[in-house]
């Protein structure tokens, strides 16, 4: 049986997930009903109201074959003002509406005395296993995932990852963390991925071309999947530096064998929990930021945690049968048969 490799030389945090970054919690709502194999995953950057206390953020679009919502304002203002939501491609609008209603319920002035709210929803296409045309995701599923958020959370075939495929195997939610030192201070960086990309012959595990061993010799079909990579750190960074971190997610993704295919939507978002941006304050107090010349340890932590999170998605997933009898085996099942 193949063992999940440990990536890199940096140590993981105690949980080994994105929740090692103080304040980060994750929750799922999983829809598992015959042809419906999908769901919603929510990442809360802190336990307060994200609209009132916005979180510094930046995104990188590595390959833009995707239908996410909210990235334009993130690029312009450098903050997020809702929790981060993941779901299937056709669930984006529904989950965005749920985020808007949720924010208005907590802040009735939104859209009236105050500006509107920027929902933030990322997606991958789970249509091989899930009857995506059923439009099964409901606004209540977002609320359920939000309320389920905690530091201990499942990975693999859960939440938004329920119907996702990765290297022609069962994919889904994966997470990892790494701890690094900068000028005598310790910082934690974590990644959570929604892994839905790759063809089996491409798979590389810990530097070993494992996909060539596991796959039959056949012509490589075009890649039509996607991956969403969420990076969190407690290192004090501004949006410009966070964008530099988000770009390094591509390094971890490439190590697993991805070439960011034409039909792949590969997007990363990086946030910091080191400080927030109050909605109503006139001036912003920012802690001393990590200088650009000292970012290399964080770059390594991002690349290693993203690669480890993809490995975690593969090894945490269970086999799933869905629409029209389509089935994806977990890597654990395929290596024991």
TrEMBL record:
<keyword id="KW-0378">Hydrolase</keyword>
<keyword id="KW-0645">Protease</keyword>
<comment type="similarity">
    <text>Belongs to the peptidase S58 family.</text>
</comment>
<dbReference type="InterPro" id="IPR016117">
    <property type="entry name" value="ArgJ-like_dom_sf"/>
</dbReference>
<dbReference type="GO" id="GO:0004177">
    <property type="term" value="F:aminopeptidase activity"/>
</dbReference>
<dbReference type="Pfam" id="PF03576">
    <property type="entry name" value="Peptidase_S58"/>
</dbReference>
<protein>
    <submittedName>
        <fullName>Aminopeptidase</fullName>
    </submittedName>
</protein>
<dbReference type="InterPro" id="IPR005321">
    <property type="entry name" value="Peptidase_S58_DmpA"/>
</dbReference>
<keyword id="KW-0031">Aminopeptidase</keyword>
């Amino acid at each position: 049986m193949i063992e999940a490799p440990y990536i890199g030389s940096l140590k993981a945090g105690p949980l080994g997930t994105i929740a090692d970054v103080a304040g980060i919690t994750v929750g799922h709502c999983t829809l598992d009903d015959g042809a419906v194999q999908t769901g919603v995953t929510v990442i809360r950057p802190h336990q307060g109201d994200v609209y009132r206390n916005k979180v510094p953020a930046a995104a990188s679009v590595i390959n833009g074959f995707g239908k996410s919502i909210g990235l334009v304002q993130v690029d312009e203002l450098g903050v997020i003002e809702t929790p981060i939501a993941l779901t299937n491609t056709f669930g984006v609008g529904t989950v965005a509406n749920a985020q808007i209603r949720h924010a208005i319920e907590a802040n009735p002035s939104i859209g009236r005395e105050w500006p509107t709210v920027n929902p933030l929803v990322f997606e991958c296409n789970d249509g091989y296993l899930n009857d995506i045309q059923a439009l099964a995701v409901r606004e209540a599923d977002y609320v359920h995932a939000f309320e389920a958020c905690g530091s201990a959370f499942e990975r693999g075939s859960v939440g938004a990852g329920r119907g996702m495929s990765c290297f022609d195997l069962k994919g889904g939610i994966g997470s990892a963390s790494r701890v690094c030192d900068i000028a005598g201070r310790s910082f934690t960086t974590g990644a959570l991925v929604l892994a839905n990309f790759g063809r089996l012959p491409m798979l590389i595990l810990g530097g070993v071309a494992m996909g060539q061993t596991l796959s039959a010799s056949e012509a490589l079909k075009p890649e039509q999947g996607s991956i969403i990579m969420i990076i969190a750190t407690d290192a004090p960074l501004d949006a410009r530096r966070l964008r530099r971190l988000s770009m390094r997610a591509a390094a971890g993704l490439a190590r697993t064998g991805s070439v960011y295919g034409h039909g792949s939507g590969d997007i990363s978002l990086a946030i910091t929990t080191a400080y927030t941006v109050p909605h109503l304050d006139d001036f912003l107090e920012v802690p001393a930021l990590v200088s650009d010349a000292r970012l290399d340890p964080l770059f390594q932590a991002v690349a290693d945690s993203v690669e480890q999170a993809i490995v975690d998605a593969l090894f945490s997933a269970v086999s799933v049968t869905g629409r029209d009898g389509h089935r994806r085996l977990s890597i654990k099942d395929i290596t024991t048969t």
